[in-house]
Specification:
Elements lengths: L3 E5 L8 E5 L8 E11 L1 H7 L16 E8 L13 E4 L2 E3 L5 H4 L10 E2 L11 E5 L4 E2 L6 H4 L5 H11 L7 E5 L3 H13 L2 E6 L5 H7 L3 E4 L3 H6 L4 E6 L7 H5 L2 E9 L11 H5 L4 E4 L5 H14 L5 E5 L3 H9 L6 E5 L3
Parallel strand pairs: 10-11, 10-13, 11-12, 13-14, 14-15, 16-17
Antiparallel strand pairs: 1-2, 3-4, 3-8, 3-17, 4-5, 5-9, 6-7
Helix pairs in contact: 4-5
């Protein structure tokens, strides 16, 4: 039986160290993938530190994997995948396919969904295993060296465009110009929307425009926010920090929606009347379904959308994680497999 070499932390906030494990027999519907690249998401850092209280150790991070299929279960062989095919695995590694949500095509909402790094070894490793549904083919036109972050951050900001019925005629605001936000701007620009990028750092204004933002504005200047009141159809919050929520809601037109994809851990205090009178709404979402992920990759290939990434060798994962923790990533980090 093959032995997988990986990097794992043995305690919360621990150092990633060499770790080997046997994955066990390959299931009928499972796929083994040889990892070529793996993006780093802030969720990897949160899980490493057990911020959500669900981490098990030893913990192998990595849920933005790109690699080639090296083994297929007997049923997986009949699902269109081929040995040597390049695929990606994002936040989820398997889902049941028979619950109400899976049958509706919302696999990410499966009642027994298996996240890639929750009770499952991730892709800071030579190989990763997933169900065939979540081994997503990478289309021609998508650079595999930068594609990893699309499988988590990319689909996280893309699926709300479909779920929220965002139209090319809509004026959209994006709060937080970081790993998620810069991809949101790129997709929204390709979608045809007029985009206003909101950030607490004026040094990011020029970069936000280079990603496709039509306008830029401060996310913390109350007076500036007042001037933009009632101007936006849809707002996507990619930041995970507390904001002036009532001022942000006031930016929405009647019927507008505030949508959160950043993991804001504090309660969001909102005056219901500010929603009720204007028929405004607040929503949130995790990543996206397999079908939405395929669509996202097709859009990325057609419009040449790629995350802005920095590369580290996988053997330097501790340095890469420290770089992320220090807020220095511009704007996503990808590890190149060298274990």
């Amino acid at each position: 039986m093959a032995v997988i070499s990986a990097l794992a932390a043995r305690t919360a906030s621990g150092k990633l160290e060499s770790f080997q494990y046997e994955p066990g027999p390959l299931g009928l519907e499972e796929v083994d993938i040889e990892v070529e690249y793996c993006g780093i998401c802030h969720s990897d850092l949160s899980m490493l530190n057990n911020e959500w209280g669900i981490t098990t150790y030893p913990f192998v991070p990595g849920h933005e994997a790109i690699g080639k299929v090296v083994a297929l279960g007997d049923l997986a062989k009949e699902r269109g995948l081929k040995i040597g095919q390049r695929v990606g695995v994002g936040w989820n590694a398997s889902s049941c396919l028979h619950c109400e949500h899976c049958l509706n095509g919302e696999h990410e909402l499966c009642t027994t969904v298996q996240p890639t790094i929750v009770g499952h070894h991730g892709a800071f490793a030579t190989q990763i295993r997933s169900h065939w549904v979540w081994a997503v083919p990478i289309p021609d036109g998508v650079d595999p060296a930068s594609a990893g972050p699309l499988l988590c951050g990319g689909i996280t900001v893309f699926s709300p465009l479909l779920d929220g019925q965002v139209l090319p005629t809509h004026k959209v605001g994006v709060f937080g110009i970081g790993g998620l936000g810069h991809m949101a701007i790129k997709f929204l620009r390709a979608w045809g929307c007029e985009v206003t990028a909101f950030t607490s750092s004026s040094s990011k204004y020029d970069e936000a425009r280079s990603f496709g933002a039509t306008y830029t504005a401060s996310s913390t200047d109350t007076e500036e926010l007042k001037k933009l009141a009632g101007s936006l159809d849809f707002i996507m919050v990619t930041a995970n920090s507390p904001l002036d929520w009532n001022s942000i809601i006031s930016l929405l037109k009647p019927g507008g929606r505030l949508h959160l994809v950043g993991a804001v851990l504090e309660p969001i205090p909102v005056h219901v009347m500010s929603l009720l009178i204007g028929k405004k709404s607040i929503s949130a979402s995790p990543t996206g379904s397999r079908n939405q992920t395929d669509k996202m990759l097709q859009v990325a290939a057609h419009h040449k959308i790629a995350p802005q990434v920095e590369h580290f060798p996988m053997s330097k994962a501790n340095e890469a994680m420290a770089h992320l923790k220090a807020g220095k990533a511009r704007y996503r980090i990808v590890l190149d497999a060298d274990l």
